[in-house]
Write the structure tokens for this entry.
Amino acid sequence: MPKLRAALEDEGFEDVRTYVQSGNIVLSSPLTPAKLTAKCKRLIADRFGLDIDVIVRTRAQLAAVVKRNPLGDVATDPKRYQVTFLAAKPKRELVEKLAALAAGKERFVAHGRELYAWHPAGVARSKLWARLADRDLGLGATSRNWATVTKLLEL
């Protein structure tokens, strides 16, 4: 993360901060989200040789995700409450397939480009989580637990 932070600063981004070791970055930029996504993806490929999904949300968009909190009434452990951020709104068929994987007390809500999932028994044996974490989901995606989502908003 220090090398990524330095690379972003070298590219002229300001207020670059990272959070934990999983690619969470907060920065200031005048670029549109689409242009920022493309620039960061290219920078990561050029500097580190990695072809990874880059998902961008503005502060306002992240605040809306937190405010929405559709599973807040049941999700009592922020480490078992996940938000999957998508590059585009998923097709209805994908949402239906994902919803069908929720087992037991798991809950799943799709809203725009975010998928909220509550895994009260953890993610280890969750078929829903396994599918959400699959790089073959069909569109760019990254998941974060609720503790990380709210911390990123604070940053």
